[in-house]
Amino acid sequence: MSLLDPPGSTVILLEAEDRLAAHQTGNNSGVIHSGLYYRPGSLKAANCVKGRERLYRFCREYGVPHERCGKIVVATRQDELLRLDELFRRGTANGLTGIRRIGPDEIPAYEPHAAGIAALVVPDTGIVDYAAVTEAMAARIRGAGGEIRLSSRVIGCRREGTELVLETGSGIIRCMNLINCAGLQSDRLSRICGVEPGVAIIPFRGEYYTLLPHRAHLVGNLIYPVPDPRFPFLGVHFTRMIGGGVEAGPNAVLALKREGYRRTDVSLRDCLGFVRFPGFWRMGLRHWRMGLGEGYRSLSKRAFVQALRRLVPDLTAADVAPGGAGVRAQALAPDGALLDDFKIVQAPRMIHVLNAPSPAATAALAIGDSLARIAREQFDV
After folding, report:
1. Residue 380: inside a domain, yes or no?
2. What is the pTM of this model?
């Protein structure tokens, strides 16, 4: 399903930056998620499983390098075994194929340098370059008659009769309908359009290390810990990248700028926005211990590597070097809850995607189907 299907329809994609995939899409770990973690029946689960297979087909059709390499999720403590069982139950309920639990003696067959007391083998997980996926999608949009305008940040929106008038960095655009998928700026764009989002976007920076080339053999494919269900983050893990090399991480620390990829990136406007939102303080009171731990790992390479050594004991601090970073747009509710599922708000002639956390990249094509369906119903296209 596509918004470009109806004859005579025109789609214009506005990108605030001077290139595509400048933020979340181009700075993530490049994992095609299987659908293991998500509550059966949730939007995350349904869209991830459907989107994963759509993405694999898309990559084959458009020649985007990818690999369905599989991963293992390793339990290293007794208190993680029940959570591992729950992951197996969720994966089975979500329709994953070939998932199975293995004991400590079987782990080396999949990852010779990993260690644990039990693990799940998840064959449906893969790796890809999402920037390359984005370029392939852009080529398809242009080929179907759509237009992509770069450096076109929306700074104003008003209604004139049946039209929406958008003020952008590249001029005025008049349109009938609008879909907001602005990620780190999605709540602000919603307000610009006169729609109260009901949430605030809080940026969390994920910092990575990379394994030095002569130690990359320590990781065959992907090695993950058993996640803590209290938090929407998966914990530091190892990911073989489609272009070569192995990433280790990320942690999750509050960024002081929405596009704050470095510790020194600070925006007074963004910080004031956080502290004025009541949910920010409630989140802090609820998760301060996690915040301190993640912050300590951000500042201490030794602590970061120690967390990684739970999965791969042979790893040392000399085996890794600082890598890149990504920023996650995490929607925060007024009561301090970190939204775990997708959130879409509709208004007349508008659709606002206000929370699309991981696995949004994996699920992008399925999410696109849902948005197209909503648009057809609401916009009468």
Report:
1. no
2. 0.92
